[in-house]
Design goal:
Elements lengths: L1 H33 L15 H36 L2 H7 L5
Helix pairs in contact: 1-2
Length: 99
Amino acid sequence: MGENRIKKFLILPGYIIGLSCLFLITYRTLIAFFSESKAVTIHINNFGEQFIDIIALIIIWSICLGGLFFLFKILKKEKISKTYTDTPQSINKIFKLED
């Protein structure tokens, strides 16, 4: 039971963080594409935040990789269970041949 909670906890943030990163990269690319200089300058450590950024990156990468690991694990279990449950009975249920 505890393992399922961990999986659910890591998969959803992994997707959210992944989509957020994709949005950020898309946004940055569009800004660079439509700017006159065709570049984006990113300043770090203006306010002493470089250590917070590194810690945040470590946490984000951990969540993303953990979610990806558990997703592959779930998909592997699903594939194995699907192999064993593909029987004529399940096909009859799909096509509503029996109730």
